[in-house]
Amino acid sequence: MQHDEWLIKENIQSLKLLMSDQNLALLPDYQQRVEVLKDLGFVDEDSRVQLKGKVACEVHSADELVLTELILDNVFADYEPEEIVALLSAFVFQEKTVSPRLTFNPISPADNPLGQRATTHREVEAGSRIHYRDL
Q: Whole-structure pTM over 0.85, yes or no?
């Protein structure tokens, strides 16, 4: 009997936690993020994860959404390996480095797939009132 009472109290505590103001405050943010994923095709209308979403789950060191789109749209096929490495290096961030900054000729906006995808994502996310770097 005492064990049953303990289980009921535990269940009540977990339900109180789920209904707390703190958890309810996070709900709109969660819903906005899901809408962004739907708009970009990472999940379908029933919130089922699509191929893009599964690929994004495997990316652990970069902006998952933009990099997934670049991979699945086969953007890197037209570039030499050295150019692909240079493009992918934009996804790696090192806060403090002692190496000197290299200068180079920038890629023209028409040839910049990273910038095009990032701009598209920012526009979709702005429509959902999510800050781009919050994702």
A: no
